[in-house]
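Retry 2 of 3 after timeout on previous attempt. Resubmitting structure tokens to design endpoint.
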């Protein structure tokens, strides 16, 4: 028997992701991968998968799909509002960060994320999706990954691996960071900016704008004055780099960032605060805190222990 979910509504930005596709940046292919690693891994832990198993990532509004096939153990992680629709039409409010059983003919309606951007949907045994260069992450702009490198569409069938019946559900207490402090380290070109602009960057609040996606997050706030050169020779860049183009408004490069860039970089978000950053919705403010390498390393150790 074929086991699959029929997509009745794809959601705004629903793609398959895992922890990333590494070792190809020199060829112009970024690692990509899930935006919020901790929430992604939590969805897999809830159903008993290895934490790196491919899952479905959605932003803001998620998919509506119907199960065709065997009963499956699934989970939705993050701050998510969703319903389970029984075959008789009964609607049951779903509980995020808990695994649950879904049966043939039942629907899952992921209505929205709550004051956050990303959520994840995992299934015990994993989805039946093909790897590309060792990863099932979807890089839409390059059409790389499962589902022909594209977002979900109406009518798509999401096949999943047949697995032995599992009735053990699980629940994980999830602590979401509520503050707006994002820790950063100095960027390679921080000296390009006036002393006042450096002080402003680390003391003033910046607002997340609607011009934000998996590639980057545009901020709005105190204009930063570049006193050296508004452009540099293009060089390799990393996730979390904070570039400042000619308009003086910072752009934080996110998981689908280009592999090289020619704007000066004032700072770089530390790994431990990246998940918190990407869950900030447009209109939220963030404040940057400068830290040194030992602090960033200690924060990373604390972050890894959560997995």
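Retry 2 succeeded. Sequence:
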């Amino acid at each position: 028997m074929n086991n699959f979910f029929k997509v009745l509504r794809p959601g705004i930005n629903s793609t398959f992701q895992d922890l990333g596709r590494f070792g190809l940046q020199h060829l112009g292919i970024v690692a990509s991968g899930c935006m919020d690693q901790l929430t992604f891994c939590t969805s897999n832990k809830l159903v008993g998968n290895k934490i790196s198993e491919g899952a479905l990532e959605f932003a803001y509004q998620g998919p509506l799909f119907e199960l065709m096939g065997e009963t499956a153990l699934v989970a939705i992680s993050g701050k998510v509002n969703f319903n389970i629709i029984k075959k008789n039409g009964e609607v049951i409010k779903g509980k995020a960060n808990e695994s649950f059983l879904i049966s043939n003919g039942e629907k899952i309606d992921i209505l929205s994320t709550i004051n956050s951007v990303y959520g994840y949907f995992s299934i015990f045994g994993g989805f039946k999706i093909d790897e590309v260069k060792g990863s099932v992450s979807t890089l839409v702009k390059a059409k790389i990954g499962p589902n022909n490198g594209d977002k979900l569409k109406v009518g798509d069938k999401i096949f999943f691996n047949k697995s032995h019946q599992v009735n053990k559900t699980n629940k994980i207490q999830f602590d979401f960071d509520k503050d707006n402090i994002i820790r950063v380290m100095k960027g390679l070109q921080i000296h390009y900016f006036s002393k006042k602009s450096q002080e402003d960057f680390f003391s003033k609040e910046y607002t997340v704008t609607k011009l934000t996606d998996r590639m980057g997050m545009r901020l709005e706030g105190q204009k930063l004055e570049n006193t050296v050169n508004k452009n540099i020779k293009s060089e390799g860049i990393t996730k979390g780099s904070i570039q400042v183009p000619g308009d003086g408004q910072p752009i934080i490069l996110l998981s689908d960032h280009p592999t090289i860039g020619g704007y000066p970089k004032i700072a770089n978000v530390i790994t431990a605060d990246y998940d918190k950053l990407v869950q900030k919705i447009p209109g939220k403010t963030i404040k940057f805190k400068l830290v040194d390498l030992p602090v960033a390393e200690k924060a990373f150790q604390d972050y890894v222990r959560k997995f």
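Attempt log closed. The domain at 181-304 is CATH 2.40.100.10 (Cyclophilin).
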